[in-house]
Amino acid sequence: MAELSRHDLAVRMADLARTVATPRTVDEILADVTATATELIAGVDTAGVLLVAAGGKFESLAGTSDLPHILDELQMTFQEGPCMQAALDDVVVRTDDFREETRWPSYSKVAIEIGVLSGLSLKLYTADRTAGALNLFGFQPRAWDSEAETIGTVLAAHAAAALLAGRHTEQLTSALSTRDRIGQAKGIIMERYQIDDIQAFELLRRLSQESNTKLIDVAQQVIDTRA
């Protein structure tokens, strides 16, 4: 990869920032982030994103090849590795040469066999109960310096923003769906029993309390049993 001027780098980062603000899926934005990492950071041969949820469930996303997914699977199998460490603990985890790495012996051995010698993992601040990391891999040792870490950290911030925006959208969609279903159930009750809006909602609320059932579930039952 040719070296980028600071101006070119700033322009590319601005382009990437705009993709977060446009109506695109989280997967599409994360794919842009990992592709941009291979473009902007010399020595990055492949990149991906690892998310680790409560209970150890994980997702391997936006790999620029199959390799990041394979490496994520290995880390989950061995329960060790730089991506997990960045997601769960450290902000930046860098390995200059896996042949000299002692922190994750099982993972490092297999990474070397696959041909990966350098690794750079950067924490994604995803909030809630999900941790994440942007993970960069190189086939050559000692691929990166502090400037590469800085660029990677900015890219990780873009990835985290996409994840947070996606979670907000999902929550908003869920809230709108809940409101609509409760409104539909109220309309059915109003028509069926010839009562007003407030009385219909009070009836739903009382049914919810008396049956120890969520209000949205009671509303769905009303909708499902409509004659």
UniProtKB/TrEMBL annotation:
InterPro entries: ANTAR, CheY-like_superfamily, GAF, GAF-like_dom_sf, GAF_ANTAR, WH-like_DNA-bd_sf
Pfam families: ANTAR, GAF_2
Record's keyword terms, sorted: Kinase, Transcription, Transcription regulation, Transferase
A GO MF label: RNA binding
Domain ANTAR: 162-223
Superkingdom of the organism of origin: Bacteria
Descriptive protein name: Response regulator receiver/ANTAR domain-containing protein
Classification lineage: Bacteria, Bacillati, Actinomycetota, Actinomycetes, Mycobacteriales
